[in-house]
Every structure is written in structure tokens, then in C-alpha cells.
Amino acid sequence: MTQVNNPLHGITLEKILTELVEHYGWDELGYRIDIRCFNQDPSIKSSLKFLRKTEWARTKVEALYINMVQK
Question: Could you tell me which of 61, 8, 11, 59 has the C-alpha nearest to residue 38?
């Protein structure tokens, strides 16, 4: 099964999060997706841990990333 139409194919969650932080910064990212790991003492490591366990938050992060790269 190929993933030709999947814009996230081959992109790690860490790369997605790193690019979002570089583009928006933690403050804007926390405003757009209101989760504690983005708003209180944010770090890539703690955010990855949360996002790997929390499907709804990961879905929001992936959607924001897709929106960012399509502009």
C-alpha cells in the first residue's frame, strides 16, 4: 500500500513539531493549539511525549502542519 497522497508520509512527529516551533514560535503555537505542553514551560521533548500519547492533540498538530506547508 503506497502513501502517495499522504502529505505526512515519511515525516516524523519531531520534524513536524520542530518546524511548527520555528515557524510560529511557542507562544503562537500555544495560542493556536491550547495545550499545556505548548503554554507552560514548553520543550520539544515534553511535547513529543504528550503528543505520542494523545491522539486528538497529535491530529491538531498534524493539521496545523499540513496547513502551514500548503500555504
Answer: 61
Cell of 60: 491538531
Task: Read off the pTM.
Answer: 0.88
Q: 53 to each of 37, 58, 70, how far by Cα in Å? A: 13, 8, 27
C-alpha cell at 35: 495545550
User: Taking the CB of residue 51, how many other CB atoms lie within 10 A of it?
Assistant: 23
Interatomic CA distance for residues 49 and 16, integer angstroms: 14
Name the one residue in this structure whose C-alpha cell is 499522504: 6
pLDDT tens for each residue of the chain, 71 residues long: 566 677 888 889 999 999 999 999 999 999 999 999 999 999 999 999 999 999 999 999 999 999 998 87
